[in-house]
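User: Here's a chain of 75 residues. Predict its fold as tokens.
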Amino acid sequence: MGWQVEPFVIEVRAGETKAFCACNKSRNGPFCDGSHKDTGKTPHIVTFDEDKTIYACGCQRSENRPFCDGSHAKP
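Assistant: Prediction complete.
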């Protein structure tokens, strides 16, 4: 299960804040769409301090969410 097998490649800007899904129920993965209501989980809120490319977890198994840790490549 997951949104996709590979990580999401996302360009972020300095000062930008993003809410990433933590409940695995979002239909807009990897971003929060409010589906966590009644799950007891809250999104991962990240504010970026520089312009850069990030790799957000797409498989929903990363131990470093919202960021990819390579779990999608593990059996």
